[in-house]
Amino acid sequence: MFRRNDLLRSASLRLALVYALLFILSAIIFMCFIWWATVGLLEREAEAAIEADASALSERWTDGGLIALGETIQQRLEQNIDDDAIYLMVDSNGARIAGNLRVWPKVVARTDIWYQLEVSRAGLHGRAELRAFSLPGGYRLLVGRDVRARTILKRLLTDTLLWAVLMVGVLGISGALVVRSLFRRMVHNVARTTRAIAAGDLTHRVPLTGSGDEFDRVAETVNDMLDRIARLMDGVRQVSNSIAHDLRTPITRARTRLEDAALHAAGPDEMRAAIDRAVADLDGVTAVFEALLRIAEIEAGSRRSAFAAVELSVLLDDLADLYGALAEEQGLTLQRLPSPSITLHGDRRLIQQAVANLLDNAIKFSGPAGIVQLSAALDGASVRIVVRDQGIGMRQPDLARASERFFRAESSRHTPGSGLGLSLVQAVAQLHGGRLELGTPTGTPAATPIGPAADASPRAGSDPVAQPGLEAALVLPLSGMTAQSARPSPPVAAWMEPPSSADHAQDRPV
């Protein structure tokens, strides 16, 4: 049921009332100015005419004296077509000499002010504006104009403006109702959408009118926010599902081993071996949570205080030496391509971890006798750190899900890892205002994987869409964090996704 308090608390009603009040007040002020200017103009014209008339009569007195002035007054009365001229000349005793008034008004005693009086002349009664003048010899002259027409015009103008104020009030209230309706419609659409979102339905959006006005821009902003929330909620659900799925196996395996050892262990050695295996499984679970916490810490931007100058060439040489030995153990060749001396502003440990994850993935998914290349080159105001491999590569459908944490393509389902490596690389790139680009290697001969990798890969010839190898490029600005660091990077190509590779997202312990 509608309540009075609801009406008083209505923002749309307050906005409508403010609009109507401002509209009506502005109109009234404007019309009052018109009234004042019009009436003032009429008064000034009458006063100017009286002043000019008096000045001419004064000159006539100077030229011809009393008789000439009387004759001039009589001539002007005879020639006054509008019959609005008023003259009276009297002697020192107040006796009438010339003019159309019979007696001098008693209230007219000063010559420095204007008088508006009711006068009677030739049987006519009306309101007149008068001014008195002193003449030599004690004579006095009264000059004026009948202002009845001006009074009628003033009354007419006043009535017209009052009707105009009434019409303006009606228009103002009508406009206020329209404004209230528009405001309520916009707020109602937003409120209806937010209520649906609060109820758990993330599919509702604020409808657009298509006019491109401020309401549409507000609706677009709200819809963008809701799309972002929906994506974040989907990501939370996916991460939760992935955590439950990926961590259930090692935890269950550790529990089973401990139970089996408790029931069937033949001695301390078997019990200790079972405990060691269970601890290893639980260490893997701990490593996953540590990786998630590390990614959250990076995405929160708490590591920006550690930014400093980083000599990239030295960092890449150290990583090439470290992973070169690991590549040789896997029967691979790690090539450190020549690169110029590059210094950038960032967190050395995080950049080292990100490149290490890329190298670890490249070695993990490359077959025997493959080549992994590590290079860096300037790209305008940025540097591109590129890791190329000749491994199983990625399917284009999997590239579209590259940014999902814990996502693992079928070709890498049985490879050890948690699926967080390139998620960390993406977080490091965004922290520095850069991006992660993934694609098929260009300019590098694609070697055919041999051995187990070739058998396990669906790209060894049966999949026409598959491309061998992967090129992962970490693009970082030389000057450190930019405005891009606050939002995901755009894709560089239609089939590239900037965040992280899913198929290659099996990282070493972070």
Remind me, CATH topology of the domain at 302-486?
A: Heat Shock Protein 90
Query: What is the architecture of the domain at 302-486 at the second tier of CATH?
Result: 2-Layer Sandwich
Q: How much strand?
A: 15-25%
Q: Report on the biggest sheet.
A: 5 strands, antiparallel
Unreliable runs, pLDDT <50, ≥5 residues?
Answer: 443-467, 481-510
Number of strands: 12
CATH superfamily of the domain at 302-486: Histidine kinase-like ATPase, C-terminal domain
How far is the N terminus from the C terminus?
A: 61 Å
Account of the protein in words:
The protein has 510 residues and is an alpha+beta fold. Among the domains are: 148 residues, Beta-Lactamase (2-Layer Sandwich), CATH 3.30.450; 185 residues, Histidine kinase-like ATPase, C-terminal domain (Heat Shock Protein 90, 2-Layer Sandwich), CATH 3.30.565. It has a 5-stranded antiparallel sheet. Strands 7-9-10-12-11 form a 5-stranded mixed sheet, covered by helices on one side. α2 runs antiparallel to α3 and α4 packs antiparallel against α5. The C terminus is likely disordered.
Task: Itemize the secondary structure elements and their pairings.
Layout: H1 4-8, H2 11-79, E1 85-90, E2 96-99, E3 115-121, E4 124-134, E5 140-146, H3 148-198, H4 214-264, H5 268-299, E6 308-311, H6 312-329, E7 333-336, E8 343-346, H7 348-364, E9 371-379, E10 382-389, H8 396-399, H9 421-431, E11 435-439, H10 452-456, E12 470-477
Keyphrases for this structure?
alpha+beta, 5-stranded mixed beta sheet, about 500 residues, Heat Shock Protein 90, disordered C terminus, 10 helices, Beta-Lactamase
